[in-house]
């Protein structure tokens, strides 16, 4: 299927998320341009490769790769796959690569991840959020492993869209890009709802992978960790409700069962921790806790997990666990 | 001070706790006999040594050391310094070393640690519990480091003591042994009260040392871990109250401040974890949680900590954290 050749997509941050979706979109015929930093030379040389257990071995070569956003052509859609912890730093690149009235889509987890970026962007740019339910990880420069899933749920955050109808039309256009590339995608009427919904997965699995040094299979095989996962999911659902977002009954159970059936998976936060990168604690824990608390709702287990992770994140640069204070 | 030469004390399990208190009691003139297993040869050869930052370098040599309880003379007091996880296994040794009407004192943390042992002992033996607020750890065969503190709070569990007066007289006799040895000791009217009180320290510090791989100094230096410690302490106080035990106002703050002033300390659970020994999770977490729940009181942060620790305990034999499932 070759479609949408006139839509130009810029990928800002080509890690596991950017690499996977960028290759899928380029293979569907979109004109995709990739901004890269440390992996530029490898990708310019050998292209981008996705080893997918779903779609097979995919290669994009040559790649329209750039070291600097100043060299990119004006893009209609800018997809941001970088960490939430670097959003503010990306604003100049986003602005340079944006066509007039471009749509900026943050493919990131957590709550309010647009808030830091929004004031740095011109009012003429649309800002959207996308929640990716996908098992991908980077295995080397320009090489991404895709183990399972892929769906992207999109919602409108802010920008020149004048009313809900206009905003939903833009969200539908975004969802259409992914669907054309063979990826399930839902247009969500409420971005906050979509973000809370995705937290039902991220809050337990991201944090526990770091805290317990465990991937999904052992976490789902032990009664105590299963109980803790369910309790954390319940608290996310309660927090969402307190903030005015009803998560559908059975949704948490659906994610729990889906995770049980997934191939063994290390969430991205575990990779961040093991590479001593800052953890996305604010987006995934700090802001949801604050939002729930402001609505009068305590989430004690999530708070305990957050406090433990914040300690580990702070000491991660020191060296191995078990060496603090010795 | 040489006192109580007629009181014969048997030490069952000569690790850090048994070694420290045994040496202190022997130096005070008590007739102390030590049951040892793996460390018998080292202790018979070179004696017991306590490197104390409070009392200086203490040596007990020769030591009245035994490989088998069958060889021990009948003891008036039996002090058990082994892990709660092995109490049932110790019953035969305790019975062999006990004089008629002997007092068995479990120097162990946690709730209801006497329950497994009690039915295995003759009714004629008194069973008591002692809560040790002390920073000690084993540094080698027969060598114990004592960093700070030492107080032992004692209460009566069960046995032939006919009424509260008779039971308290026995508890006072036990506290007197320690006080004669220069160790602060309180006779507690209610053992459960004393056990809940000690949990205010053990629940946060033991578990977090394992979960976060951190000793007391870094745990007390970070706002997130401090907040978590305080929240866990608050939950212990709430759980105790639900079970009918009022912990004095300010007691948790006292332990918190005391820990801040202590030398850097790795709780015993951390040593158990790093040596791949079973953790005392049932005594310190499982039973308090169950008791509070039975009284209608949820302790969510303690429960989350317990669930996380139970996962780690189960997988501890597998190898290093971060390797599960790989």
Automatic annotation (TrEMBL), chains A, B:
Pathway: Cofactor biosynthesis; (R)-pantothenate biosynthesis; (R)-pantoate from 3-methyl-2-oxobutanoate: step 2/2. It catalyses: (R)-pantoate + NADP(+) = 2-dehydropantoate + NADPH + H(+). It is an enzyme of class 1 (oxidoreductase). GO terms for biological process: pantothenate biosynthetic process. Belongs to the ketopantoate reductase family. Catalyzes the NADPH-dependent reduction of ketopantoate into pantoic acid. This is 2-dehydropantoate 2-reductase. It comes from Pseudomonas marvdashtae. The lineage of its organism: Bacteria, Pseudomonadati, Pseudomonadota, Gammaproteobacteria, Pseudomonadales.
